[in-house]
Amino acid sequence: MCRWIAYRGETTALEHYVTSPSHSLVTQSIAALESTASVNGDGFGLGWYGAHPEPGLYREIRPAWSDENLRYLCRHLQSHLFFAHVRAATGTPITRPNCHPFACSKWLFMHNGFIGNWAKLRRRVEALIPDALYPARVGTTDSEAIFLAIMGAGMGAGMGAGMDDPVAATQTTLARLADLVGPDRMRFTAALANGRDLYAFRYAMNDRANTLYYRESEQSIVVVSEPLDKDHHNWTPVPESHVLVAKAGEPTRILPFLYVHREAAE
Amino acid sequence: MCRWIAYRGETTALEHYVTSPSHSLVTQSIAALESTASVNGDGFGLGWYGAHPEPGLYREIRPAWSDENLRYLCRHLQSHLFFAHVRAATGTPITRPNCHPFACSKWLFMHNGFIGNWAKLRRRVEALIPDALYPARVGTTDSEAIFLAIMGAGMGAGMGAGMDDPVAATQTTLARLADLVGPDRMRFTAALANGRDLYAFRYAMNDRANTLYYRESEQSIVVVSEPLDKDHHNWTPVPESHVLVAKAGEPTRILPFLYVHREAAE
Amino acid sequence: MCRWIAYRGETTALEHYVTSPSHSLVTQSIAALESTASVNGDGFGLGWYGAHPEPGLYREIRPAWSDENLRYLCRHLQSHLFFAHVRAATGTPITRPNCHPFACSKWLFMHNGFIGNWAKLRRRVEALIPDALYPARVGTTDSEAIFLAIMGAGMGAGMGAGMDDPVAATQTTLARLADLVGPDRMRFTAALANGRDLYAFRYAMNDRANTLYYRESEQSIVVVSEPLDKDHHNWTPVPESHVLVAKAGEPTRILPFLYVHREAAE
Amino acid sequence: MCRWIAYRGETTALEHYVTSPSHSLVTQSIAALESTASVNGDGFGLGWYGAHPEPGLYREIRPAWSDENLRYLCRHLQSHLFFAHVRAATGTPITRPNCHPFACSKWLFMHNGFIGNWAKLRRRVEALIPDALYPARVGTTDSEAIFLAIMGAGMGAGMGAGMDDPVAATQTTLARLADLVGPDRMRFTAALANGRDLYAFRYAMNDRANTLYYRESEQSIVVVSEPLDKDHHNWTPVPESHVLVAKAGEPTRILPFLYVHREAAE
């Protein structure tokens, strides 16, 4: 089980969220609290948007807590929308392409969860990725495969076009996954962004969903797998089977996500 | 284009072939001669057989020339059959699972070559891997996919059984690849072993095959992508479209490999 | 605070001690019990003796728990005397030369402890290393500096000669360190070997000494910073201010080490 | 022998100098031209100034040519003054602390050169570093030791104060090194900056100095160990025993550096 943080708001140095808080993401890499894996030492990653049309990525296989490059970068990189992730691997190798976040054109994605029977289902999950996006599969994780399947579902026939409705694309993809997963377990707590808008999902099949919280101010919204400080009242949980939608220039909304599907399954 | 060496013979320390000769594999990692890529600095690997029923592997993403662990291991590891490989990547990421050799049960495989249109053909090449072996695909290279396809072709219906005829399995797999590759180029200079027997292939489609040499004595046979010293008369080239078969207790044979197929294609 | 294991006895595969036991060293790398640092994820190392006159070393900056090379090597490397170490860094960088064990000619050394005021004392500790050995200082840890100081004290005038009395050399070095450390704290729980004999020290200044246990049979002795299984009655603690001496062909002895010095200090 | 580039001018993305030009620094990492070591694959580093009072650092032990993080960072990092360096090690280990540039408070330093008899002189060179700066020695290279000696010489008695005259401090340090080096060889082609001003030195003792070029426009000055493109007339060589001084708001000057000293020695 991994830990992550997503930020959208006024441009700020990443250090204020990734390395400095009392229970910062880097602290969580060596001692997470609300997680079955208290150590998240199997690599980490940053993804951020800046002046360049495509997001930046910094991914490394060392633990986040001992990476001096990460401290320098978090001081110097400033962004209005960024992701950071520390990994506890669930079977796939510790390589940079298997570290989150993943990037595809202007989209970033990161994930905390798993597909229960991945070894058996992998081939059928990878088959959800359209041919045009298969060269973008540079790693071997379930997370990357789900991301590229979402991208494929969202881009529809015109593969060059963007993804207009990422919530619908994710919903379509998870419905397809539900057919594959059957009675197995799956957990999906994920963030998706395009440089302007931020989406965060909390969902599970045949299992409890991993935790997800957010904290909002006039200047920014921060979404996290566990709070960055001990003042838990600052942090609002996102309910299971819901998606947080934080579009630029619009109020944040918490919407049901595959809620009916779960009831039907019960 | 990569460089590699395969050894079968009396048990010896790996250093006599990998790190010590004047034009050792480690020297070739920084300055190969008979190669379009003179630098093979995109990772390396050792595979060897010992007392344990399965072979050992040591793979690393650093260049071989600066890895102090490699020097210690080559002094201390002794084997009667081992592979060593330095990599010049052709597009897939620099990760340990993408470094050669690859292991599957008691088999080792390493490769110098490429599939010309890999980004387009990848999915169809991966489809040659049987379901039972797909979990063994931990990297993303064309080389690993070809190896697992050969393993699948060789094991036939009874997947648990060994591979009885690896030359036939390789022949079957390359014929299938020929159908996929069509007019594109493919180079396949590879070594395969099971702990007792060593096979080395030199083959190409629509292209010249990469170089392959061997040197034989009463004690051992060494097969290399380029000679380990400047006395080229010590080294015999393996002709294109041939396979070297060095079975334990039998004389080494150089046999035609897909020779008819090539003629038919011309 | 680090965790380590030292073995001397019948030649065996390293896996039986490093990777296989229920509370193996690799398990301790992610969840140590008798340690202030429960995670030892700042690199690791193996040192072992074999046919080559000098010991082998394998050191890596990744956590031990995710290193697939380590699992292969522990299956295949066999030795009559070996060290394994997982590191929790106390301030010096995570680099291979800062990982334990350290090697110097035929000697191996590893350490669990620290010099309290290292930043201030470093220069004076390094001054204990004789000129002839200073080129062997390839890292920046206090542990390596203490080791090379011990080597220097043991080799005396004839620098080429071996170290005849390593316990006396260690005693001399720690007495010198005591002068430098003054009222600061220092912990020194360390192992030293020359390919035949094994020495393990448990000592501290102005502080409690780190734990040290051993388990002996007719075939072997194993010395550890914490037991490899939950049957604690199998394991005998080495008392503080004592040294374990396990010479080839002699019974193991537990001897007072700087015991008087401590009393004098109280 | 290493390769490097230093930039001062209008704020720009690093990619325009580090990764994009036809003979960019990354290209030089795998195929340098004016260098005895054509491969500079022993790690690399970036140092840059931005909004934070201290410079940023990104150093990695992999070759620059295969580091995908480097490509992302060079797209996204923008700076008015930055350094980039690819390393060909001359004996010290391949670790991040041994990669250039080095940082100390607001200063950055990088180096292409060596001290001929480093193993023998190391201790005396390290003795030039004042106690207050010795904790900043986190690696083991001659380059880092020279940098910290320069910092010490420049800060004089008031160690907290800045370095007012870095050319004088470098001159003092090289004069001290000359005494130590005696008849041995030393090469020193280095860059030094404080976030506003850039200094680049070309000097050698008992040897030819390594190459150094610059290209100046109204917007910027670029100083390099070898030209970034084939139009050599764009690039002006800095003569041996000279220093380039590019202060903010002043015209660039090329001044004699230890010129008298060399004549005296001849």
Please characterize this protein's 3D structure:
The structure is a homotetramer of 266-residue chains. Chain A is of the alpha+beta class. The first copy, chain A, has seven helices and 13 strands. The longest helix of chain A is centred in the middle third of the chain and has 16 residues, at 166-181. Chain A is globular. The two termini of chain A are 25 Å apart. Chains in contact: A-B, A-C, A-D, B-C, B-D, C-D. At the A-D interface, strand 3 and helix 3 of A face strand 3 and helix 3 of D.
In short:
The structure is a homotetramer of 266-residue chains. With 266 residues, the first copy, chain A, is an alpha+beta fold.
What are the segments of chain A in which pLDDT stays under 50 over at least 5 consecutive residues? 261-266
Strands of chain A, count: 13
Distance between the termini of chain A: 25 Å
**Roughly what percent helix of chain A?**
10-25%
Instruction: Tell me the greatest interface.
Output: A-D, 20 and 20 residues
Helix-strand blueprint:
The structure is a homotetramer of 266-residue chains.
Chain A lengths: L2 E11 L1 H4 L6 H6 L13 E5 L7 E5 L7 H9 L1 E9 L15 E3 L2 E9 L2 H9 L15 H14 L10 H16 L4 E8 L4 E8 L7 E4 L3 E5 L11 E2 L4 E5 L6 E4 L2 H7 L1
Antiparallel strand pairs in A: 1-4, 1-10, 2-3, 2-4, 5-6, 6-7, 7-8, 8-12, 9-10, 9-11, 12-13
Descriptors:
7-stranded antiparallel sheet; 13 strands; disordered C terminus; 266 residues; homotetramer; alpha+beta; 6-stranded antiparallel sheet; 7 helices
